[in-house]
């Protein structure tokens, strides 16, 4: 009886661990995607403002 309970607990812990790892990976990926998007948007804004500045002159 004790062995069955321990085995079940181990399985649950492994399962939860996998879920946590998957969620963490998804969050990290989303963060990196946002970071790249923000960087690209920043570059685009700089480019647009620079071209606007050139047009104003």
Order of helices and strands: H
Query: What form results from the Cα inertia axes?
Result: rod-shaped
What is the structural class?
Answer: mainly alpha
Assembly classification: single chain
Question: How big is the Rg?
Answer: 24 Å
The main sheet comes to:
none
- Give the helix level as a range of percent: over 70%
Number of strands: 0
Rounded average pLDDT: 90
Residues in β-strands, percent: under 5%
Distance from N terminus to C terminus (CA atoms, Å) equals: 84 Å
The number of helical segments is: 1
- Poorly predicted spans: none
What does this structure look like?
It is rod-shaped and about 80 Å long. It has one helix at 2-56. The chain has 57 residues and is an all-alpha fold. The mean pLDDT is 90. Keywords: Membrane, Transmembrane, Transmembrane helix. This is NADH dehydrogenase subunit 4L. It comes from Vermiconidia calcicola.
Summarize the structure.
Keywords: Membrane, Transmembrane, Transmembrane helix. The protein is built from 1 helix and no strands.
Helix/strand layout:
Blueprint: H1 2-56
Features of the shown structure:
single chain, 57 residues, transmembrane helix, transmembrane, NADH dehydrogenase subunit 4L, membrane
């Amino acid at each position: 009886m004790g062995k069955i309970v321990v085995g079940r607990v181990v399985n649950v812990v492994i399962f939860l661990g996998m879920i946590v790892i998957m969620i963490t990976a998804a969050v990290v990926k989303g963060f990196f995607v946002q970071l790249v998007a923000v960087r690209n948007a920043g570059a685009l804004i700089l480019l647009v403002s620079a071209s606007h500045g050139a047009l104003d002159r």
